[in-house]
Write a structure and sequence with these properties.
33% of the residues lie in helices and 18% in strands. By secondary structure, it is of the alpha/beta class. The protein has a single domain, classed as 3-Layer(aba) Sandwich (Rossmann fold). Strands 1-2-3-5-4-6-7-8-9 form a 9-stranded mixed β-sheet, sandwiched between helices. Helix 5 runs parallel beside helix 6 and helix 6 runs parallel beside helix 7.
Length: 296
């Protein structure tokens, strides 16, 4: 994959990823159906947001032992672009997913990852760019990630905590995504570290609006009373500028106190590209860093 203009065109081709929306009016009454092909995923069709004035599907992965341990509460990881995570029939590239459920099962069974619940939130289709960008670009628009974050905090989290047995607090609540979803997750995590204490930032779109996120890190980091734990990665086949942008972001995080191996892991993935297959390979290592199990 080339850098420069091709880098941007590759990422921008994903900006309007298809939406899996529904028609139900109230989030609290949405029944769960089997989601995708994994036995322990549940799909809530048509989760309605009054804040965003739209509906989308939310697919939830339950860890091994969830039904057998009714008195246990579990950590939570929320991931963006939920239609690409579990079900090959709904993914951006049909048949290719992040294999989140299968990988989570493997690393949990190995004791490398703490058992956790993972919720995939489908993107808003044509609204994806607007909802996943923290600032408005004079050419491309966007800048509605603040409202999207309100939906996550005020509507989705209460819904998930009502439906599932979840631990509370930032130490047990993560947020993540790739590309623009990674950008949004990092921005929201830095904006609300009291809510999201673990961030999965895969191939983030640092380029957005003249690298706005780098300026935000510089402005916001000195104000933080607590720093979220961050997994940050980029593939070295995503383009020279994309790689340089991610390395700049990692450098700024380190300059503001994040420490490699403690609360920051920066991964330069050899041969890594900007697609579902590449991100699927990173799910296991990301989970091991953010939610380490007893064997870690």
């Amino acid at each position: 994959m080339a850098d420069g203009g091709e880098r941007c065109s590759t990422q921008r081709s994903r900006l309007g990823t298809q939406s899996q929306t529904g028609t139900q009016a109230g989030a609290q009454s949405i029944p769960a159906h089997s989601g995708g092909r994994h036995a322990r995923t549940r799909r809530h069709q048509g989760f309605r947001s009054r804040i965003l004035k739209s509906s989308r599907d939310v697919t939830v992965y339950l860890p091994p032992g969830y039904d057998e341990e009714p008195d246990r509460a579990w950590p939570l990881l929320i991931l963006q672009d939920g239609q690409n995570l579990f079900d090959p029939e709904t993914s951006f590239i049909r048949g290719r997913t992040w294999r989140v459920a299968e990988t989570a099962d493997e690393v949990i069974a190995a004791g490398a990852v703490e058992p956790l619940v993972i919720a995939g939130v489908a993107n808003g289709g044509e609204r994806r760019l607007a909802e996943y960008t923290p600032s408005r670009d004079w050419k491309m628009g966007g800048g509605e990630a603040g409202q999207y974050g309100e939906m996550l905090q005020r509507e989705l989290l209460p819904f998930l905590r009502k439906e599932y047995r979840l631990r509370s607090g930032p130490a047990h609540t993560g947020l993540g995504g790739s590309s623009l979803g990674g950008l949004a997750s990092l921005w929201l995590g830095l904006r609300h570290p009291e809510v999201f204490g673990k961030l999965a930032v895969l191939s983030p779109s640092v380029w957005w609006n003249h690298k706005y996120i780098v300026s935000y890190v510089n402005d916001r980091a000195p104000e933080l009373q607590q720093r979220p734990r961050i997994w940050l990665d980029v593939g070295d086949a995503e383009g020279r500028r994309t790689l340089a942008d991610a390395e700049l972001l990692a450098a700024r995080l380190r300059a503001h106190g994040w420490r490699d191996g403690a609360d920051l892991h920066f991964e330069r993935v050899r041969g890594g590209t900007h697609d579902e297959a590449a991100w699927a390979e990173r799910v296991g290592p990301m989970l091991r860093f953010l939610f380490p199990g007893k064997s870690q």
